[in-house]
Amino acid sequence: MSISRKNTHQVLVGRIPLGGSAPVVVQSMTNTDTANVAASVAQVAELARAGSELVRLTVNNEASAAALGEIRQRLDDMGVDVPLVGDFHFNGHRLLEKYPECARALAKYRINPGNVGSGEKRDEQFNAMIEKAMEYGKAVRIGVNWGSMDKQLVARMMDENARRKSPLDSDHMIREIMVTSALESAAQAQAVGLDADRIVLSCKMSGVQDLIAVYQMLSERCDYALHLGLTEAGMGSKGIVASTAALSVLLQQGIGDTIRISLTPEPGGSRSTEVKVAQQILQALELRSFTPQVIACPGCGRTTSTYFQQLAQDIQDYLDASMPRWSREYPGVEAMNVAVMGCVVNGPGESKHANIGISLPGTGEQPAAPVYVDGVKTVTLKGEGIAEDFQRIVEDYVKRTYA
């Protein structure tokens, strides 16, 4: 699906083009102690293998800054070439100066204008980070967050608003302050000498409607590449639903060049869940394809539910396990659709619309499962080995169609 993007500056983050006509980029962030090199390398590799195209790490102290060079080297030795982003707050100017290996290892520096410094030190410290980005040829994300806004800017703009004949309400003012913070900081970076095609902006909020409104404002007022994300999205289905609701509206409007889903992992859960959610949002909007999709009905009283549910899961697991090999050998396979349906009501129709589909027998129906390939019924499967037989049909189709 073609959606015209509103912001046209393209930024190169390591090897990854971001913005302009480039595909929307999926990124994620580690939650390891960056100073723990082994743990950080393992998690970056996990996220990259799950499909994260950029991975951000916290760089909050000297130990973490000192570790970045070794982290980058170990990843390169493993063949994991995902670009790394450094998340700096409060002391980034000192860390980038003291640890040149850190400055070189990172592909992008994240600067929060709300905590880069205050008073006269604010400009000095902000400029120092921009100068390091220029020295090493790195991109910069100027990331405003409503939980850590520039206090001086807030005071100035609130005073200005109070003097208006018709003051804006507080919600509108927060959005105005965030957009102003991002744009003024970007202008300052350019005044120092950083090119616009090395700047990414973000204005993150935790409310869905707030996020939509602030990015609509930001997009109307600039042409920089934009990073989308609902900050502190939360856990489980709440975080997934809220992030999907907010980002889908913006992406459909052509707003956003890279996305991150800020999920709180379940206890013991994988950090890579946020990568899969980001991919599913883009694939559902038909903006990108990452893996073949299984179309499956929810089940009802007509279905022998446990059977078709298990088959749907088996097929999805099979597709996921096959994708590392398929993606190398069969370009285009990620756009394939597979239908696993539970009865004759919608089963044959959905199967015909998919690349490959199977319509399983529902409760009381004849124990036979017709298979459709590109809309044509090719075989009817019966017996105990339906799942294995269907997988062989899918494998043969992939080899024949995407070779």
TrEMBL record:
Converts 2C-methyl-D-erythritol 2,4-cyclodiphosphate (ME-2,4cPP) into 1-hydroxy-2-methyl-2-(E)-butenyl 4-diphosphate. PANTHER family: 4-HYDROXY-3-METHYLBUT-2-EN-1-YL DIPHOSPHATE SYNTHASE, 4-HYDROXY-3-METHYLBUT-2-EN-1-YL DIPHOSPHATE SYNTHASE (FERREDOXIN), CHLOROPLASTIC. NCBIfam families: ispG_gcpE, PRK00366.1. Its EC number is 1.17.7.3. One of its GO terms (biological process) is isopentenyl diphosphate biosynthetic process, methylerythritol 4-phosphate pathway. Residues 8-279 form the IspG TIM-barrel domain. [4Fe-4S] cluster binds at C297, C300, C343, E350. It catalyses: (2E)-4-hydroxy-3-methylbut-2-enyl diphosphate + oxidized [flavodoxin] + H2O + 2 H(+) = 2-C-methyl-D-erythritol 2,4-cyclic diphosphate + reduced [flavodoxin]. Pathway: Isoprenoid biosynthesis; isopentenyl diphosphate biosynthesis via DXP pathway; isopentenyl diphosphate from 1-deoxy-D-xylulose 5-phosphate: step 5/6. Keywords: 4Fe-4S, Iron, Iron-sulfur, Isoprene biosynthesis, Metal-binding, Oxidoreductase. InterPro entries: Dihydropteroate_synth-like_sf, IspG_bac, IspG_bac-typ, IspG_C, IspG_TIM, NO2/SO3_Rdtase_4Fe4S_sf. Binds 1 [4Fe-4S] cluster. The keyword Metal-binding applies. One of its GO terms (molecular function) is 4 iron, 4 sulfur cluster binding. This is 4-hydroxy-3-methylbut-2-en-1-yl diphosphate synthase (flavodoxin). The keyword Metal-binding applies. HAMAP family: IspG. Its cofactor is [4Fe-4S] cluster. Belongs to the IspG family. Gene3D superfamilies: Dihydropteroate synthase-like, Sulfite Reductase Hemoprotein, domain 1. It is an enzyme of class 1 (oxidoreductase). Pfam families: GcpE, GcpE_C. Residues 293-395 form the IspG C-terminal domain.
